[in-house]
Amino acid sequence: MRSKEQNLQGNYLDSLFPIHNAAMKRAKLEAKNFGVEGISVSAHEMRIIQWAIKACGIRKMVEIGTLTGFSGLGLLESLPQEGALWTFEKDESRAKQAKVIFEEALRADTSGSKKQVYVKCGDARNELETIIDEGPFDGIFIDGNKSAYCDYLAWAERNLRKGGLILADNVFLSGAVYDQVTDKSKDKSNNSGGRPRFNSKQISVMRAFNARLCDSSLFDSCIVPSVEGLLIAIKLF
Ligand SMILES: C[S@@+](CC[C@H](N)C(=O)[O-])C[C@H]1O[C@@H](n2cnc3c(N)ncnc32)[C@H](O)[C@@H]1O
């Protein structure tokens, strides 16, 4: 649960970096219609992600966890004219909706851009293997199921070029990585300060994910200490 201070700070940052992109506004609205508006990245976190993509000259980007396309549209916006995005979503109705929004956004773009978006519906743990011939890729944004973050990292290590960019949201698991060691199926007491509960597998996967990406012999990394935690890393090998 966010503190009053965190909410105020988030609102202030969102007011400094408002969303101008009509398709992104629509994606947020459709997420609201699915009843999951709150699980998209915030506008100001998207700004950090876009900044990193532009700074690193990313052209071929992969995303895990499309939802209705909010973050994917943000990624697309920051790619160069010949950029391409492969985005994975296991929920069929969300993937279908995202596809419509991406297609409309590309049609509305009159800049002569040749950007491409491929929405891949299915479990990313399997589907990622279907695109490896398109690689090596320049970057990946990991925002899917938390228990598979290490699987996504293993794929990225194999399929991103040296110097590739890895971005991952929710690496604090709402605080559980540093302040919750309980398994929700075993512990009925609420000692998580009102935060969402995560099970011991999710917590241990995220701790291993963070530890590997913070190994300076493998990655040049940092963590933006937002409420959810945004990890940014450059692959050094
Ligand atoms: C946090 S939401 C993504 C939000 C989106 N990146 C945004 O900011 O607009 C996570 C999404 O990942 C999807 N997801 C969960 N497990 C998945 C898997 N194994 N493969 C692909 N997508 C998955 C969920 O259905 C959900 O829509």
Q: How many structural domains can be distinguished in the coordinates? A: 1
At the first level of CATH, what is the class? Answer: Alpha Beta
Q: Write out the CATH superfamily name.
A: Vaccinia Virus protein VP39
Could you give a short account of the major beta sheet? 7 strands, mixed
The low-pLDDT segments are: 185-192
Mean pLDDT: 92
Order of helices and strands: HHHEHEHEHEHEHHEE
Name the structural class.
alpha/beta
Number of helical segments with 4 or more residues:
9
Looking at the structure, the CATH topology is Rossmann fold
List its salient traits.
single chain; 237 residues; Rossmann fold; 19% strand; globular; binds S-adenosylmethionine
Structure description:
With 237 residues, the protein is α/β, with parallel strands linked by helices. The protein has a single domain, classed as Rossmann fold. The chain is 41% helix and 19% strand. The chain has nine helices and seven strands; from the N terminus they run αααβαβαβαβαβααββ. The protein has helices at residues 4-16, 22-33, 43-55, 70-78, 92-108, 124-127, 149-159, 176-179, 200-213; strands spanning 60-64, 84-89, 116-121, 137-142, 160-169, 219-224, 230-235. A seven-stranded mixed β-sheet has the order 3-2-1-4-5-7-6, with helices on both faces. Helix 2 runs antiparallel to helix 5 (92-108). The longest helix has 17 residues, at 92-108. The radius of gyration is 17 Å and the shape is globular. The N and C termini lie far apart (38 Å). Mean pLDDT is 92; it is low at 185-192. Residues 39-41, 64-65, 67, 70-71, 88-91, 94, 123-125, 143-145, 148 line the site of S-adenosylmethionine.
